[in-house]
Design a protein that fits this description.
single chain, mainly alpha, MetI-like fold, 2 domains, 0% strand, globular, cell membrane
């Protein structure tokens, strides 16, 4: 019978230690490479916004002569001064957008989490039907005209804040994401133990499910806030009265449209030729991007910790 040759235990341990040393020798090198690649990718994401801020503070004449530059020879605040000449309307529009974003996000979180929690419960008899109903709306929608008729003719919400809030309050994609989050994060044993202790569905949802689900809720809340903050289309559809203050995004779009009209028709408007010639057109566009983006960018770090957890939860089990 042939004998199986085995290495002494000392040689095996030495081989393992050598492999471990080789692994430790290679690992820092690849860590540096990966960190450099990720750093370059992160810089490529942040750099455009930094460049836009620099251009917004560049003098318009310098921009026309030198072009876009990271280090312009002359800085100016003319773009921001022109925008802020709208007076209190800009700050009022900012307040309208902030109010719509806060109320809309809270309403969206309430509707999405309650709907998704019901779909995640196996004891819910009609969860298959309502899951199909949510998924169906992702593929097919009523369209713009029926939505406009419902909002204006049936609900009579034209020129009101609810016309900006309700269209974005329910998202089938958010519902499916939260349903999956509840199914993969909330064990059935926790729900059953709460019922044994006498807690009902509402108390279980409020006192047990929601605190555990903060990463998923923060992720959906961030996406919902971005949607409300950047929304201008609903104001374009449902706001047609000059007495109603539009949201910030729609006001900035109106300012840009008026500025483009003046610059394109400067030759036909004799008294405003000098005015339109001095308008900082390019820098105003960049300033509008900064004003529309900076507040939500400043709020993002507060959601980052929960946002990362919400994206990675369920990816690794065991």
């Amino acid at each position: 019978m042939p004998q199986i040759k085995t290495k002494p235990a000392g040689q095996l341990d030495a081989g393992r230690r050598k492999k471990k040393r080789d692994h430790n020798a290679i690992s820092p090198f690849w860590n540096v490479i990966f960190n450099v690649i990720i750093g370059l990718f992160a810089f490529s994401c942040v750099f455009p916004f930094i460049f836009v801020i620099i251009i917004s503070f560049t003098d318009e004449q310098t921009l026309a002569l030198e072009g876009f530059s990271l280090f312009p020879s002359k800085f100016s605040t003319d773009a921001y001064e022109y925008i802020f000449k709208t007076g209190s309307e800009l700050f009022t529009s900012f307040g309208v957008t902030l109010l719509v974003t806060v109320i809309g996000t809270l309403l969206s979180l309430f509707l999405v989490t309650t709907y998704a929690y019901a779909l995640s419960r196996r004891s819910f008899e009609f969860r298959g039907f309502f899951s199909f109903l949510a998924f169906f709306t992702m593929l097919f929608s009523g369209g713009m005209v029926p939505s406009y008729i419902v909002m204006t003719q049936f609900l009579h919400l034209q020129n009101t804040l609810w016309a900006l809030i309700l269209p974005l309050s329910m998202s089938a994609f958010f519902i499916i994401v939260m349903r999956t989050f509840f199914q993969t994060t909330i064990p059935d044993e926790i729900i059953e133990s709460a019922k044994i202790d006498g807690a009902g569905e509402y108390l279980t949802f409020a006192r047990i499910v929601l605190p555990i689900s903060l990463p998923g809720i923060a992720t959906i809340g961030l996406f919902s806030s971005l949607g409300y903050w950047n929304d201008w289309f609903n104001a374009l559809m449902y706001y047609n009265s000059p007495k109603v203050t539009p949201p910030l995004q729609y006001l900035l779009m109106q300012i840009e449209k008026n500025m483009d009209f003046l610059t394109k028709n400067a030759q036909n408007i004799g008294s405003t030729v000098d005015l339109t010639a001095s308008l900082p057109t390019e820098t105003i566009r960049m300033a509008m991007v900064v004003l529309a983006t900076l507040p939500i960018v400043m709020a993002y770090p507060f959601f980052q910790r929960y946002f990362v957890q919400g994206l990675t939860v369920g990816s690794v089990k065991g």
